[in-house]
Amino acid sequence: MKKIIKNGLIVTAADTYRANVLIENGKISAIGTHFDEDGAEIIDAKGCYILPGGIDPHTHLDMPFGGTVTKDDFETGTKAAAFGGTTTVIDFCLTSKGERLKNSITTWHNKSKNKACIDYSFHLMVGEINDEVLDELPQVISEEGITSFKVFMAYKNVFQADDETLFRTLLTAKDLGALVMVHAENGDVIDYLTKKALEEGNTDPIFHALTRPPEAEGEATGRAAQLTGLADSQLYVVHVSCSNAVEKIAEARNKGLNVWGETCPQYLVLDQSYLERPNFEGAKYVWSPPLREKWHQDILWNALKNGQLQTLGSDQCSFDFNGQKDLGRGDFTKIPNGGPMIEDRVSILFSEGVKKGRITLNQFVDITSTRIAKIFGLFPKKGTIAVGSDADIVIFDPNVERVISAESHHMAVDYNAFEGMKVTGEPISVLSRGEFVVKEKQFVGNPGSGQFIKRAKYGDELSEQGRESLQSTQI
Ligand code: URP
Ligand code: ZN
Ligand code: ZN
Ligand code: ZN
């Protein structure tokens, strides 16, 4: 049945205007002021914004890490994402040395199919470059539609790749049309500082932050940017947490390099002092890079405002406080790294960003959706309100006030890192390809309804599916 969204204010990365949206066959078929309502379901968006569904470019659902597995899987994680106004997630498919990439990708398909309530895609971790990997990567792009590769510069002896691997991944990505993503922290320096801290008996959660200083992030970010220039390739720096890294990204961009930067809500509103909370509560705030001294927040906000950073990812990687974070009592290196962020990503940027005058309403849409779609080859299928685009739409009430709490969140994890924080603005209803996933704040979605999305190569203006959708709407 066709649907018509009426009485709302459409907000895109470019414009804010009053119009109605006609939805047919899962797509936006028209935008206008008068549609024939016979046989249509009418959605009243009075007092609300009509936003393109959020795109979360950085999630770890059902991911093994530190001897345990993240609490949220593709079912609970995507359900919580939808409640938070996100309609697409791009999750990281891990690989192991010696394993065929195809097998790793199959593992990730098995984790997600029949579970995801919204559409999803994968990035692929590259941990080594050898003949087998070089042989397989072209198919990863052409057959799987996975067009971004992730290289870890930290987590020594676990995920960390050396500089040769990073450099050759950059060269390969350039040839194949892929984007290289980096976790930029100097893993060797961190490894040394960590061992030293433990030797000195410094085992509390705060030492997680103190052994991963901002300089280690700035150095790795600068190194990755330099290697990107040398390879004439393209780079996306995930979870930027500090001034040191922002400086390196800005410097690279000023030179004209293709370097993008993402930050996360946790770095915008929480700070290092959270790791010092008593009774091991600091463990709730252990992730990498760590929370920084508060003054870094102004630098991050400013970088979002002036475009030095372009996107907001959640880095969703949730572990229960009881039973999982616990593993690190008496040794901070055993605290599983990560936090539950998928649900509150959009709300926090709206409330702390738009409502507090730090960014504009259109920038908010760009940072949480449109720019991500463009960088990762999803545009214009995803990431905007336009004729021919998927009807991934959020009806967002900008004036509702609520308090974030684990009591009311939809993630499976037993705490919320933003517990007690007041935010203004909330998604009321959320549609994925024209079907309600959340309707009037109630979950009405179906695990398994989310589709795997093949993405366009880096730099291709339109994804294959984007091209098809535009053709089908040409008059
Ligand atoms: O601590 C974090 N961020 N855990 C998830 C893995 C990563 O580094 O992104
Ligand atoms: Zn009529
Ligand atoms: Zn990371
Ligand atoms: Zn991550």
Automatic annotation (TrEMBL):
Coiled coil: none annotated. Keywords: Hydrolase, Metal-binding. It is an enzyme of class 3 (hydrolase). Its cofactor is Zn(2+). Gene3D superfamilies: Metal-dependent hydrolases (3.20.20.140), Urease, subunit C, domain 1 (2.30.40.10). The keyword Lipoprotein does not apply. Residues 49-437 form the Amidohydrolase-related domain. GO terms for molecular function: dihydropyrimidinase activity. InterPro entries: Amidohydro-rel, Hydantoinase/dihydroPyrase, Metal-dep_hydrolase_composite, Metal_Hydrolase, Metallo-dep_Hydrolases_sf. Its EC number is 3.5.2.2. It holds the Pfam family Amidohydro_1. Belongs to the metallo-dependent hydrolases superfamily. Hydantoinase/dihydropyrimidinase family. This is Dihydropyrimidinase. It comes from Rossellomorea pakistanensis. The lineage of its organism: Bacteria, Bacillati, Bacillota, Bacilli, Bacillales.
